[in-house]
Amino acid sequence: MHFQLRTHFRTLLFLTCLIFCSTSLLGQSKQALQNYEAGLRALENKDIQKAIQLFYSASEKDNQYIDPLIALFQTYQDTRNFKLAIDRFEQIKKIDSSASVPFIVKQATALASLGQYNAAKDLLDPYIINNTLPSLSL
To answer: CA 61 → CA 28, 54, 65, 132, distances in Å?
Structure first.
């Protein structure tokens, strides 16, 4: 339980940092940013469904705004909805492949959890071979 709370806190901290970094650089629409921030508050208040709805709304308002997709990916991972987590990861990767790298291990975990062991192995192999596997410290 303590580990789970720590993980949620780290996730929220990470996502909050992403807000300040990426919004100033990429200039997301104001409504998308407002929805994303409201989603973070809903997540903090443990209203997962509302958070998911707000993150989706934010990503629809600005389809290049990656933070809501990362938040959805993390939320789906935390709730063990691996199919939807995998889908969000693919969206993140299409928008900015470098933004997906910190989540490679979690994506492989999601794939393996759905029995897609070869896909998980194929995803990780290049990172293992080059000794560049990201850590799970997020």
So the answer is: 9, 11, 9, 34
- Asked if 34 contacts 62 with a C-beta cutoff of 8 angstroms, the reply is no
Model confidence band, residue 135 (pLDDT cutoffs 50, 70, 90): confident
| Residue in 115, 53, 57 with CA at minimum distance from that of residue 83 | 115
Mean pLDDT across the chain, nearest whole number?
85
**Token pair listed for 110:** 């999601």
What are the start-end ranges of the H helices in 27-103? 30-44, 48-61, 66-78, 82-95, 97-100
pLDDT of 72 over the 90 cut:
yes
- Say if CB 59 and CB 65 are below 8 A apart: yes
Amino acid 100 reads: S
Tens digit of pLDDT for each residue in 14-51?
Answer: 655 555 555 444 555 899 999 999 999 999 999 999 99
Which residue pairs from 43-51 have beta carbons closer than 8 angstroms and sit at least 24 positions apart in sequence? 43/12, 43/71, 43/75, 44/12, 48/75, 48/79, 51/75
- Residue 128: count other Cβ atoms within 10 Å of its Cβ: 10
